[in-house]
Design brief:
The structure holds two protein chains of two kinds. Chain A is of the alpha+beta class. Chain A has two domains: 75 residues, ACT domain (Alpha-Beta Plaits); 71 residues, Alpha-Beta Plaits. Chain A is 30% helix and 39% strand. Chain A is built from five helices and nine strands. In chain A, strands 5, 6, 7, 8 and 9 form a five-stranded antiparallel β-sheet that branches. A four-stranded antiparallel β-sheet of chain A has the order 2-3-1-4. Chain B has three domains: 183 residues, Rossmann fold (3-Layer(aba) Sandwich), CATH 3.40.50.970; 162 residues, TPP-binding domain (Rossmann fold), CATH 3.40.50.1220; 170 residues, Rossmann fold. Chain B is an alpha/beta fold. Chain B has 23 helices and 20 strands. In chain B, helix 16 crosses helix 17 and helix 16 packs across helix 23. In chain B, helix 17 links the parallel strand 15 and strand 16. In chain B, strands 3-2-4-5-7-6 form a six-stranded parallel β-sheet, with helices on both faces. A six-stranded parallel β-sheet of chain B has the order 11-10-9-12-13-14, sandwiched between helices. In chain B, strands 16-15-17-18-20-19 form a six-stranded parallel β-sheet, sandwiched between helices. The chains are: A alpha+beta, B alpha/beta. At the A-B interface, helix 1 and helix 2 of A face strand 6 of B. The structure holds thiamine diphosphate. Chain A: One of its GO terms (biological process) is isoleucine biosynthetic process. Chain A: Belongs to the acetolactate synthase small subunit family. Chain A: This is Acetolactate synthase small subunit.
Chain lengths: 175, 573
């Protein structure tokens, strides 16, 4: 199962290395990590997307993250009402014939053209991973020259329906 | 030629160097002894040790690995953190085995490594090594000091992190440009660690679940680990066990957490544990683990580990609970605090009569056994003699291998903190330097280091310390002219193909000891053992005794790798 986990960390030297090293050593399968500042100075947020085989492994993951001295809070938001976003930059082959076609296509995804050259277009798309992947799928036939994604970042919504909390979240809270 | 290292720097009286700040911080932390070895990047620190009239002493080893294992031995028996200083590059990398060992066995260490000057970090400067990168996976935490103003805070914080919660090693990497900087002497050392708040007190609801289960259980057993020793909870455990009359199995590292030889003590469990201990775990319906981590050498094949038991697990490290064994009652707490709350509960036992009878029967019918030889000496009998001649009161350190298992099986540990061994990492070369640290921690106690002829040769250069520090450590070599444990596995699992496990040439250990100015002895016959041990143990100084033991003896009983607790071999002769 895919899980989305947010860790709030104290922004100290080597913290990213420490955490990714631990995840690698303990054989957790990380699909993406994104790291960014929070609104508190010295505190950062890390969002992990991990592929986890079972509940026991997931519990280990949150516990191992919590065990890190720099980690202040770990939240498994997978089962919560959340907003997830990622950003992709796609450089796609474009000539005079295909350019207008591509530009029409991307408007449906509210993506932007941010650079145009003689034989390519650079497109920026933001949104849920499914949306980003769908657009990339549609662009692929034109020929993708280059592509980069930021990885996922996520936030729980302000309103949480009761059943949104999984049993596991409760367990890791006192761990 | 003399060159003033601080040339051109006008040292005013209220100014100090970074190294002086370090010395002050160590004194403030109450450090008694530092184990170290100098080199280029720590010259300013060593100069400060020389210039200042420090309240702690420095013990110079002959190899950094010797320093760090000595610090581990010191920490294990004193309960205080071991402190180590080494230079950058090779000095730091020589510490890695000891740091990893301390991480695996939860030993508090604060380790200082020199680093090249800040301006040249990252340029592959002379004796530069990425100490932060190398030590991150094997430390509880690590720091590189980038600003001298942080130094007192980092040292203070490091001692806190190393010694609280689940103890472990902390590394502080200090660039030479920091240790030699001249600076003012008024930095704060307060720290704030919002992400590090170990849970010490147990959830009382969880504790009452344990006693509820105990009143329903018919076959309860306690697994006692080193967490009890670290928490200083042996008295509480004793009382809890006596109140409820529950049999106790100890782990290798937990030996001494419950008095060995006591009625309810089943001895060590695991790969070379007693039949009664492993059988009790296998058959139990309630397993209460206090301060052990369900290591695979203890559990054997997890599928067959305590298959019918409800498991309660008390551990200060939440990540250990449920890691290897599914746990019905998780309790995150310090072992002493958890036991204190357990002791407050009403005692309402289930009926354990049949269970205790069965356990007694197992103990009686399947005790540890061995064959007696005359010449050479039977190793297990030798350990029993060591026990007798030291009144069972010595601090015993071991290396790793057969002798370690025999010491664990046949030296009955009645008291806490008398046993120092490398468990999790299984580090050959650990035992002898660990004895040095133990003797420094307990100058009035007899410290016996039981080692193999293989492992002793990994760190024997530290014989120098025995001489220079005048430490009366007794080194008992169980000399089987082999890497015995490797030889045993080759005999058992590789059809006696003894690939590189037999020593054709060993040094003359007696002459070797003498060359260090230390008394050396050799015993080859059993009949000479009692007198030799008496002579060695009453000698007012260090002794090395080369004991020639039977070379083919194997450690039994055994749970072969991959097998379950019910599949022990070599249970009887
Ligand atoms: C540093 C290190 N290298 C290798 C091993 C693997 N090993 C485990 S036991 C053993 C043999 C130890 O021989 P010795 O010290 O003579 O003790 P004995 O088993 O004979 O009592 C070896 C090589 C180890 N544990 N540690």
């Amino acid at each position: 199962m895919k899980r989305i986990i947010i860790a709030t960390v104290q922004d100290r030297g080597g913290v990213l290395n420490r955490i990714t090293g631990m995840l690698h050593r303990r054989q957790f399968n990380i699909e993406s990590i994104s790291v960014g500042a929070s609104d508190v100075k010295g505190i950062s947020k890390m969002t992990f997307v991990v592929e986890i085989s079972d509940k026991q492994k997931l519990e280990q993951l949150t516990k191992q993250l919590n065990k890190q001295i720099d980690v202040i809070k770990v939240l498994d938001v997978t089962d919560k009402a959340i907003v997830t976003r990622e950003l992709a930059l796609v450089k796609v082959v474009a000539n005079n014939q295909t350019r207008p076609e591509i530009m029409t296509l991307i408007t449906a995804f509210r993506a932007d053209v941010i650079d145009i050259s003689k034989d390519s277009l650079m497109i920026q798309v933001t949104g849920k991973p499914e949306k980003v992947d769908a657009l990339i799928g549609l662009l692929r036939p034109y020929g993708i020259k280059d592509l980069t994604k930021t990885g996922l970042t996520a936030f729980p919504r302000g309103y949480q329906p009761e059943q949104g909390f999984s049993e596991l979240n409760n367990m890791s809270a006192h761990g | 030629m003399k060159v003033n290292a601080n040339q051109g720097v006008e040292v005013k009286s209220n100014l100090v160097t970074g190294s002086d700040l370090l010395v002050q911080a160590l004194e403030k932390a109450g450090v008694e002894v530092v184990f170290g070895y100098p080199g280029g990047a720590v010259l300013p620190i060593y100069d400060a040790l020389h210039r200042n009239d420090t309240t702690f002493k420095h013990v110079l080893s002959r190899h950094e690995q010797g320093s760090i294992h000595a610090a581990e031995g010191y920490a294990r028996v004193s309960g205080k953190p071991g402190v180590v200083i080494a230079t950058s590059g090779p000095g730091a990398t020589n510490l890695i085995t000891g740091i990893t060992d301390a991480m695996m066995d939860s030993i508090p260490l604060v380790v200082f490594t020199g680093q090249v000057a800040k301006q040249v970090i990252g340029t592959d400067a002379f004796q530069e090594a990425d100490v932060m990168g190398i030590t991150t996976p094997v430390t509880k935490y690590n720091y590189q000091v980038n600003d001298i103003a942080d130094l007192p805070r980092i040292v203070n914080e490091a001692f806190h992190v190393a010694t609280t919660g689940r103890p472990g090693p902390v590394v502080i990497d200090i660039p030479k440009s920091i240790s030699e900087t001249v600076t003012i002497n008024d930095y704060e050392d307060d720290f704030y660690l919002p992400g590090y708040q170990p849970t010490v007190y147990p959830n009382p609801m969880q504790i009452s679940k344990v006693t509820d289960e105990l009143s329903k259980a018919e076959k309860p057993v306690i697994l006692a680990g080193a967490g009890i020793l670290i928490a200083g909870a042996t008295e509480e455990l004793k009382q809890f066990v006596n109140n409820w009359e529950i049999p106790v199995v100890t782990t290798l590292l937990g030996l001494g957490s419950y008095p060995g030889g006591d009625n309810l003590s089943l001895g060590m469990g695991g790969m070379h544990g007693t039949y009664a201990a492993n059988r009790a775990i296998y058959e139990s319906d309630l397993l209460i683990n206090i301060g052990a981590r369900f290591d695979d050498r203890l559990t054997g094949n997890l599928q067959h580990f305590a298959p019918n038991a409800k498991v309660a697990h008390i551990d200060i490290d939440p990540a250990e609970i449920g890691k290897n064994v599914e746990t019905a009652i998780p309790i995150v707490a310090d072992a002493k605090q958890a036991l204190n709350v357990l002791l407050l509960q009403e005692v309402n036992r289930g009926d354990y009569t049949a269970w205790l009878d069965k356990i007694k029967k197992n103990q009686k019918e399947y005790p540890l056994w061995y064959n007696r030889e005359d010449n050479p000496i039977s190793p297990q009998w030798l350990i029993e003699q060591v026990y007798e001649k030291s009144n069972g009161e010595a601090v015993v350190t071991t290396d790793v291998g057969q002798h370690q298992m025999w010491a664990a099986q046949f030296y009955t540990f009645k008291n806490p903190d008398n046993w120092v061994t490398s468990g999790g990492l299984g580090t050959m070369g650990f035992g002898f330097p660990a004895a040095i640290g133990a003797q420094i921690a307990k100058p009035d106690k007899m410290v016996i280091s039981i080692v193999g002829d293989g492992g002793f040769q990994m760190t024997l250069q530290e014989l120098s310390i025995l001489k220079t520090q005048n430490l009366p450590v007794k080194v008992v070599i169980l000399n089987n002219e082999a890497l015995g444990m490797v030889r045993q596995w080759q005999e058992t699992f590789y059809e006696e193909r003894y690939s590189h496990s037999l020593f054709s040439e060993n040094p003359d250990f007696v002459k070797l000891a003498e060359s260090y100015g230390i008394k050396g002895m050799r015993v080859e016959d059993e009949k000479n053992v009692p007198d030799a041990l008496e002579e060695a143990f009453s000698h007012d100084g260090p002794v090395v005794i080369d004991c020639r033991i039977e070379r083919q003896t194997c450690v039994y009983p055994m749970i072969a790798p991959g097998k379950g607790m019910h599949e022990m071999i070599g249970v009887t002769k």
